[in-house]
Amino acid sequence: MSPIEVVVIGLALSADAFAVTISNTFVYCDERRSRLLLQPLFFGAFQGLMPLLGYFLGGLAASLIEAYAGIVTLVILGVIGGNMVREGALALRHPDEVEAHDACVRGKRLTLAQLLFQSVATAIDAFAVGVSLRAHAVNLAFAAGTIALTTALCCLAALAIGRRLGHLLGDRAEVAGGLVLIAIGVKALLG
To answer: Where is the chain membrane-spanning (predicted)?
Structure first.
């Protein structure tokens, strides 16, 4: 497997993390920059770790994880996204009940637990890539590092894009972000 192929795999794997980062940036638009910058770190780390786990544990649990990866991803992202849609829709219907209701959802905080769940949910497919890396003559450290770095860089770009688009979406940012998470979960389920 060539280095270019590894970068392409990294870009493909980072697509979900990219979309979730944009969604988080919409919803948590007044979050501290340091907290938002944890997204590239978390998503990159998990996208790099899961191929390692897939490589070493692939024979033991690959079929089980592959069989239920879509369902797990849908449940995690569906619950988070559904809650975001519900809260966003409530804010749109009753703007007088939401404090400081303007171009973003004020006071919402991105928790470490949410980042952890989102990181795992978006990286489950990287486990399967790790299983396939066993079959190819590939430098595992290079592949995992490249996938992690590619994802982190894509998430940094998503932060910049999300800041721009979040202001354009205004009050609908939370609903849009939740719908993106649900769509990613459904896509994972359908394969």
So the answer is: 6-29, 41-61, 67-85, 141-161
Q: What is the Cα–Cα distance from 186 to 191, expressed in whole angstroms?
A: 8
- The structure tokens listed for 124 are 């489950």
**Which of helix, strand or coil describes residue 9?**
helix
Q: Which amino acid is it at 24?
A: N
Encoded amino acid at 49, one letter: L
- Asked whether the whole model's pTM tops 0.90, one would answer no
CA distance 185 to 191: 10
The rounded distance, in Å, linking the Cα atoms of 110 and 183 is 20
Stated as kind and residue range, the H or E segment containing 186 is helix 173-190
Task: Reply yes or no on whether the pLDDT at 151 is more than 60.
Answer: yes
pLDDT digits (tens, 9 = 90+) for 63-83: 666 677 778 777 877 777 787
Give the relative orientation of helices 112-133 and 140-169 as an angle to the nearest 10 degrees.
140
Query: To which residue do tokens 């849609």 refer?
Result: 85
CA 148/CA 50 separation, integer angstroms: 10
The DSSP H or E segment spanning 183 is: helix 173-190
